[in-house]
UniProtKB/TrEMBL annotation:
SMART domains: S_TKc. Residues 1-340 form the Protein kinase domain. GO terms for molecular function: ATP binding; protein kinase activity. InterPro entries: Kinase-like_dom_sf, Prot_kinase_dom. The lineage of its organism: Eukaryota, Fungi, Dikarya, Basidiomycota, Agaricomycotina. It comes from Rickenella mellea. This is Protein kinase domain-containing protein. Signal peptide: none annotated. It comes from the Eukaryota. Gene3D superfamilies: Transferase(Phosphotransferase) domain 1 (1.10.510.10).
Amino acid sequence: MWWRDHAKVLEGHGYILRSRYQPGWQPSWVGTDIQPAFCEDSFRQLHRESQPKVIDAKRACDGMSVMIKKCIVTSTEITIARSLTTPELLRDPMNHCIPILDTFQVESELDLQFIVMPVLRFFFDPPFFAVGEALDFIKQTLEGIVFLHGQGVAHRDCSRANILMDATAMYPRGFHPIGREAESDGVRVANPLRRMDASYVKYYFVDFGISTHFPDPKNPFRVVGGDGQDQEVPDLSAAQPYDAYPVDVFILGNLYKKTFVLAYNNLRPLVEAMTQKEPCARPNAVDALAQFNAIYQELKPYTRRWRLEEAGESAISRHIGNIGSAAREIIHQSKHFFGS
């Protein structure tokens, strides 16, 4: 395996791979009566490629868990990612681009460049619980697209697999970078807090592999290409140039539609506007965020704390869930009233 064969080189750059990816690794459960599932080194990278592009590691200087991604050195991904995460831009609360902690090359692979990022989770894992949690996700991702477009960058693939979250506050005892149901030791089962009970959860856009930077705002923001997770975008074409910014708006709107609208109808007008077939009929990112903020301001606080119904749930499940939400709201109001 490529990563195992380069473990010592990576260590020379300050990053230590898990024991499974060290030369000469022997499974810790061999010769014992312990099941592999109870051994940390049983977790392996879950990638469809035979040679995964991303691997987890520990930063030697402080033990921080990180992810290392190898990129083709001629790719614009690194250039765009680094330009969006300068110290100055990272101070912008609208910036939701994954921080780049480090970049480096190795002498034996000069056609590759490596980027180091924090360990994050998919935005939907664990599932959303309350309406306010979903609304916070939508607000942050719209802010992120406003920021990107303001920097002259179209993501072009800001869909499900390319939005991650920093769930540190949800996992007081940490979580394993690969065995996500386990604590950081890879053995004990993790018991995360709900997003609404955590101090803060931040969402990030990742993977700028097909993103485009438009340095001159006076030039048309035209691109060609049909790549991307969301193949329902009507604009995509390998031959006909199209405006890249409305594509980002459509992708996010389609994501909201499939993830939340069936459970929360208040979002329907915004989502329908964002997923119009004609690009010129969609709001731009700034207007979409403004429309969302208007919807949000009209909501009562208890609505944000109410549980997010699951699409297709039965009437009985809905009734039981609503009773639970009502009980939690009574407890919340009682604590507020009595000051406890």
